């Protein structure tokens, strides 16, 4: 037992060196390539952030133009990919569809892809970032029985996603700029978060030299759980279940009860022990969007009151449990017309650039090794086998 450090949940293990994202959990700091998330959310658009994460520096105007062109020209998916959707039940969860269809992309982009070649890795990243919105919107359209909408490359990345989600053949669709900006900001806030469960999954899967599209599918699977990306959907479901401010004490009591598995969704984080800077931006965005769209959502009152009570309750204070990014994102997404079953898909779409940046960083590292954790064996000691089955 003496050889390995036992560290369940990797609470104290650095799995790699990385120069992409920095988090200081005690002081609520999140930097992408050195830039504070608050500044990026305010002043950069999502594709600029994608460039920054992938290449390490913010793009010049010329570099941005070229990058935008490179991404947008890959937004279509092979027409044969549409038939993948038909294999799913019409009421399938969009995460189930997206996870499977993204894995299916590996069939379209395998040979002659050479993942040791930087230019091949770059095109794989462009394809991934470009096609995720298309596949995400197709999953939604499939679930509501509407025809797929083809991508448009003459609008913004967020605008294109919204038109693929909401346009119908019989009507004109115009993207609301407020909704477009909110969507873009949600993408930026979720773009990367260093070695979280899904990113670590992508790295581990990729460390064997596997096809990157299959690795992203593995990341999507990991993201789906309610302790990770699934929290945004679970949080909105919880707010709806609470329903009104007067029912909050009952749910706070349940969250504190160790015999009850219920947790306050959108609260707590493995790394942030002070506040989640993404939640602060998201809270502001939430108020802006609801004001701009003139929406009065009683769930926002429930969320604000829940936050106020939880932050003064010793249970939450002692355990340093603060609202995380997903606490307010669901209310914004609901306000812009996105159904809750799509929330985690949108997280996956946003995080794809982070996953691809980490995969590329790992693959570029000459010291890269297959990820292979060890264990502390707790099973039976060696013993002799005697069959009990009559032959
Ligand atoms: N509600 C009630 N109690 C909680 C909560 C919560 N949301 N989160 C943690 N605790 C308690 C937990 O019961 C434990 O108490 P005790 O010490 O008495 O046993 C203590 O706080 C520490 O919790 P932990 O589970 O050991 O902490 P962790 O670092 O392993 O888990 C977490 C972090 C995010 C999984 C957890 O806080 C959680 O389940 N939160 C709710 C789900 C959620 O909102 N997830 C989204 C994370 S942010 C988006 C993303 O990056 O994916």
From TrEMBL:
Reactions catalysed: oxaloacetate + acetyl-CoA + H2O = citrate + CoA + H(+)
- Associated pathway: Carbohydrate metabolism; tricarboxylic acid cycle; isocitrate from oxaloacetate: step 1/2
| Sorted UniProt keywords | Acyltransferase, Transferase, Tricarboxylic acid cycle
**Stretches of the chain forming a coiled coil according to its record:** none
Asked whether the UniProt record includes Acyltransferase among its keywords, one would answer yes
Cited Pfam families: Citrate_synt
Q: Annotated Gene Ontology MF terms?
A: citrate synthase activity
The record ties this protein, via SUPFAM superfamilies, to: Citrate synthase (SSF48256)
Q: Which domain of life is it from?
A: Bacteria
**Stated family:** Belongs to the citrate synthase family.
- The entry's protein name is Citrate synthase
* Source organism per UniProt: Oceanisphaera ostreae
């Amino acid at each position: 037992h003496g050889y390995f450090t036992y560290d369940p949940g990797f609470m104290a293990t650095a799995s790699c060196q990385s120069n992409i994202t920095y988090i200081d959990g005690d002081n609520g700091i999140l930097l992408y390539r050195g830039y504070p998330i608050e500044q990026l959310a305010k002043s950069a658009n999502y594709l600029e952030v994608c460039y920054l994460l992938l290449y390490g520096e913010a793009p010049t105007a010329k570099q941005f133009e070229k990058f935008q062109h490179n991404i947008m020209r890959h937004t279509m998916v092979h027409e044969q990919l549409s038939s993948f959707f038909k294999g799913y039940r019409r009421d399938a969860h969009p995460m189930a569809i997206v996870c499977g269809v993204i894995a299916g992309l590996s069939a379209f982009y395998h040979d002659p892809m050479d993942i040791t070649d930087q230019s091949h890795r770059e095109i794989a990243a462009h394809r991934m970032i470009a096609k995720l919105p298309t596949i995400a919107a197709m999953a939604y359209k499939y679930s509501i029985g509407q025809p797929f909408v083809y991508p448009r490359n003459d609008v913004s990345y967020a605008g294109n996603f919204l038109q693929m989600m909401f346009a119908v053949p019989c009507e004109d669709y115009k993207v609301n700029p407020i909704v477009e900006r909110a969507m873009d900001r949600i993408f930026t806030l979720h773009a990367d978060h260093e070695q979280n469960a899904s990113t670590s999954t992508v790295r581990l899967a990729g460390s064997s030299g596997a096809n990157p599209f299959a690795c992203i599918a593995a990341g999507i699977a990991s993201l789906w759980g309610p302790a990770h990306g699934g929290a945004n959907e679970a949080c909105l479901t919880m707010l709806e279940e609470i329903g009104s401010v007067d029912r909050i004490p009952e749910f706070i009591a349940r969250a504190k009860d160790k015999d009850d598995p219920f947790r306050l969704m959108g609260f707590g984080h493995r790394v942030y022990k002070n506040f989640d800077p993404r939640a602060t931006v998201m809270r502001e965005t939430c108020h802006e969007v609801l004001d701009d769209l003139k929406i009065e959502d009683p769930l926002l009152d429930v969320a604000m009151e829940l936050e106020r009570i939880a932050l003064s309750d010793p249970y939450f204070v002692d355990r340093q449990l603060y609202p995380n990014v997903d606490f307010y994102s669901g209310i914004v997404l609901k306000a812009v017309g996105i159904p809750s079953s799509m929330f985690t898909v949108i997280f996956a779409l946003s995080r794809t650039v982070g996953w691809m940046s980490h995969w590329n960083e790992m693959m570029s590292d000459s010291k890269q090794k297959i990820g292979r954790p060890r264990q502390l064996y707790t099973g039976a000691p060696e013993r002799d086998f005697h069959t009990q089955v009559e032959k």
